[in-house]
Amino acid sequence: QVQLAESGGGLVQAGGSLRLSCAASGRTFSTNYMGWFRQAPGKEREFVATTIRDGSTYYADSVKGRFTISRDNAKNTVFLQMNSLKPEDTAVYYCAARGGAVGPYEYWGQGTQVTVSS
Known about the structure:
By secondary structure, the chain is mostly beta strands. Helix content is 0%, strand content 54%. It is built from no helices and eleven strands.
């Protein structure tokens, strides 16, 4: 099993920045892929960004150029730097992990609230 613990959410004004962190523990060899998803009220959960252990990164179009995902493999931690935040970025952000290149994300954190005020 893998345990994921997010931190760093909060309230910020539009145009501001926040940095989310997600620390993995347990069977961390099953965290080759680590990503961030978000779910806004009344909406389905959506993909935000993912990073592979080799450093490759992928982003949703809605956050490209504003968000940066990174990871510290030695500390089994993934980060999401969010800049130029917009009210539509308001959501619960979830950290997720999986071992393989295909299939669903197997492990999920509890989520952290990000609220962007206009």
